[in-house]
């Protein structure tokens, strides 16, 4: 089922697998319309199922990544791209190694650079030179972050080095064995960079995301609630499972 709540088109799916399938079919529609477009990818647990579905579609011959350019949202800092914990490694393992991506058109922020200010500036320029991002995939943090744009006093602008929130360190330390090993900083596309994407596809699964989804749709638009800024974007598709939607179901009564 899909619903429209203010500017959000919301697909409500039964569980994680159905959420992944729905997101995949939406991605396919965009990709088949714009085969040489610029696509923004996200990492984390949420899009893993989507990437599995996309690999499947590729193997069935329903989709090609040959002519697209990709930009990833973020990367830990410091982080060597060759590390198994890097988002570079994640993307290769979960998607790029299994499809016909042109490796020269893959862009993931680097976590091992010294001149990160120049790197961030160049990253934004490269997105611009490529005509901007046609479709950006997003997850959302339990604290409402999008990309690694954590709750803050101001909305961030372009790509920048940021400090991870304690809640993010706690949430993500599962991938690092313990919270001692996880980097405290990251390079992330900013809120302005995300708002400049033509289309956004945001996904969430599980009860632990239900507050973040509620606050994104109904919360005050403020930098302490980063996802709320999407209320101002013209083209946001939300794909959620029933657990992640549990708070908005109560609110609207009709979902
Ligand atoms: P997750 O992270 O998919 O691992 O839950 C989402 C996010 O932090 O944006």
* CA radius of gyration: 17 Å
Strand segment tally: 11
Which residue ranges are poorly predicted, with pLDDT under 50 across at least 5 consecutive positions?
none
Terminal residue distance = 9 Å
Q: Order of helices and strands, N to C?
A: EEHEHEEHEHEEHEHEHEH
Could you explain the architecture of this structure?
The protein has about 260 residues and is an alpha/beta fold. Helices cover about 30% and strands about 20% of the residues. The strands form 2 sheets. It has an 8-stranded mixed beta sheet, sandwiched between helices. Strands 5-9-8 form a 3-stranded antiparallel beta sheet. Helix 1 (about 15-35) packs across helix 2. The protein is globular. It starts with a strand and ends with a helix. The mean pLDDT is about 95. The structure holds 2-phosphoglycolic acid (PGA). The site of 2-phosphoglycolic acid (PGA) has 6 residues, from loops.
List keywords for this structure.
single chain; 255 residues; alpha/beta; eight-stranded mixed sheet; 11 strands; globular; binds 2-phosphoglycolic acid
Question: Which secondary structure elements does this structure contain, and how are they paired or packed?
Answer:
Blueprint: E1 2-5, E2 8-13, H1 16-33, E3 38-41, H2 48-59, E4 69-72, E5 74-77, H3 87-94, E6 106-107, H4 116-129, E7 135-138, E8 160-163, H5 166-172, E9 185-188, H6 191-195, E10 199-204, H7 210-218, E11 236-241, H8 246-252
Parallel strand pairs: 2-11, 3-4, 3-7, 4-6, 7-10, 10-11
Antiparallel strand pairs: 1-2, 5-9, 8-9
Helix pairs in contact: 1-2
Bound molecules: 2-phosphoglycolic acid (PGA).
2-phosphoglycolic acid (PGA) binds at residues 44-46, 139-141.
């Amino acid at each position: 089922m899909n619903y429209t709540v203010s500017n959000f088109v919301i697909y409500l799916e039964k569980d994680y697998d159905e959420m992944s399938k729905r997101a995949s079919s939406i991605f396919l529609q965009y990709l088949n319309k714009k085969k040489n477009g610029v696509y923004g990818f996200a990492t984390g647990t949420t899009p893993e199922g989507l990437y599995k579905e996309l690999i499947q579609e590729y193997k069935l011959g329903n989709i090609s990544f040959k002519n697209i350019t990709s930009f990833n949202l973020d990367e830990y800092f410091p982080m060597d791209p060759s590390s198994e914990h890097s988002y570079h490694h994640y993307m290769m393992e979960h998607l790029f190694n299994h499809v016909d991506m042109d490796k020269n058109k893959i862009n993931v922020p680097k976590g091992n650079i010294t001149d990160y200010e120049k790197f961030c500036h160049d990253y934004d320029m490269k997105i611009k030179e490529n005509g901007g991002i046609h479709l950006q995939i997003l997850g959302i943090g339990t604290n409402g972050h999008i990309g690694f744009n954590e709750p803050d006093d101001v909305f961030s602008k372009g790509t920048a080095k940021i400090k991870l929130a304690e809640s993010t360190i706690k949430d993500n330390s599962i991938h690092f064995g313990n919270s001692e090993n996880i980097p405290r900083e990251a390079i992330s596309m900013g809120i302005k960079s995300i708002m400049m994407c033509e289309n956004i596809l945001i996904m969430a699964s599980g009860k632990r995301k239900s507050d973040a989804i509620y606050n994104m749709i109904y919360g005050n638009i403020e930098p302490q609630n980063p996802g709320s800024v999407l209320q101002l974007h013209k083209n946001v598709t939300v794909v959620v499972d029933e657990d992640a939607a549990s708070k908005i179901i109560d609110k609207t009564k009709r979902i």
